[in-house]
Inverse folding.
């Protein structure tokens, strides 16, 4: 559902960002040296959110160094290191590692962020989006942001790295949510940008209205997809399949509740159900049995069900599109096929 203007939108943005911070506290608080109590970290997070409401509503959502485990020299005060003596002591004790000039990392710091700083880059684009909790396809590599004046580091050739060039780097190790999304829209195809935006909307990170503004500021071909954005797609796989049918000018809905079946991922036309399986979510045997019971229930009500695996959507997508196009040509999405009762 699209967010309203005014103070309601502001409070919504603050809540969304606070939810992400608390989630990362649970993951990363054990990375901090003992000099920073968790209670202090939570209080600082609340204060930071209260002071940056306007920036949050414009997409200016940031990940603090505490959550990434990577600090520049000026940010070390966040973990209680305020002079050279304390810094040397932390390095000697193994609490910190020097990863570049004036850059330091905790022992269990995020490896993607450490790798970026080590080669003089920053984390952004798809990698940055994934750190903010946005759905990103597997095996996309690490997306570094480098200044145009710097040559490509040799290490990136063997690390499945994708480099994006900017005029000047930021001081922080990772770009803001706003910048990461804009980099995806600028450097990648329109389908990838569309998928990232829908995931961000579904996660409550940005509003539908702001997402449309992002797309409308791009090329005409990319901007044309803004009218298709919605908040209901629960994964990038669903967004990709739904966009395929939309571009075929076919009526399609996401996360539809059907009596006698339950909620389905995608309903095409009147009678075609598409279920987008993921290896992580559908590997449990009980879930497998439940899904097959639903498929039979759908068949008994006249629906046709196509169940797509993650690999069919991402590894062999061209072939899958051909099969789905033939299904549309057969018009199986326009009519129910009822089973005769004995």
């Amino acid at each position: 559902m699209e967010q309203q203007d005014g103070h309601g939108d502001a409070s919504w943005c603050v809540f969304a960002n606070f939810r992400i911070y608390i989630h990362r506290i649970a993951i990363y608080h054990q990375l901090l040296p003992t000099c920073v109590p968790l209670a202090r970290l939570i209080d600082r997070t609340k204060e930071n959110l209260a002071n940056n409401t306007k920036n949050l509503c414009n997409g200016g959502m940031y990940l603090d160094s505490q959550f990434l485990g990577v600090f520049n020299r000026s940010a070390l005060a966040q973990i209680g290191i305020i002079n050279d003596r304390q810094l040397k002591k932390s390095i000697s004790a193994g609490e910190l590692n020097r990863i570049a000039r004036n850059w330091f990392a905790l022992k269990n710091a995020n490896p993607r962020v450490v790798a970026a700083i080590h080669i003089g880059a920053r984390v952004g684009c798809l990698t940055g989006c994934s750190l903010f909790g946005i759905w990103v396809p597997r095996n996309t590599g690490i997306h570094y942001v480098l200044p145009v004046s710097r040559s490509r580091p040799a290490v990136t050739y063997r690390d499945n790295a994708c480099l994006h060039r900017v005029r000047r780097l930021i001081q922080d190790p990772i770009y803001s949510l706003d910048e990461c999304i804009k980099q995806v829209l600028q450097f990648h195809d329109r389908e990838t940008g569309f998928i990232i935006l829908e995931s961000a909307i579904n996660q409550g990170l940005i509003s539908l209205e702001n997402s449309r503004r992002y797309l409308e500021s791009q090329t005409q071909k990319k901007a044309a997809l803004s009218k298709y954005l919605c908040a209901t797609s629960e994964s990038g796989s669903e967004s990709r399949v739904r966009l395929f049918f939309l571009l075929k000018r076919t009526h399609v809905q996401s996360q539809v509740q059907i009596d006698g079946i339950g909620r389905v991922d995608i309903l095409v036309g009147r009678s075609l159900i598409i279920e987008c399986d993921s290896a992580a979510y559908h590997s449990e045997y009980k879930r497998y049995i439940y899904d097959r019971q639903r498929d039979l229930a759908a068949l008994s009500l006249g629906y046709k069900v196509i169940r797509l695996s993650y690999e069919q959507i991402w590894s062999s997508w061209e072939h899958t599109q051909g099969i789905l196009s033939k299904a549309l040509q057969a018009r199986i999405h326009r009519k129910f096929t009822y089973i005769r009762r004995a």
Summary: The beta strands are 70-72, 96-100, 103-106, 122-123, 142-147, 161-166, 252-258, 262-268, 272-276, 304-308. The longest strand covers residues 252-258.
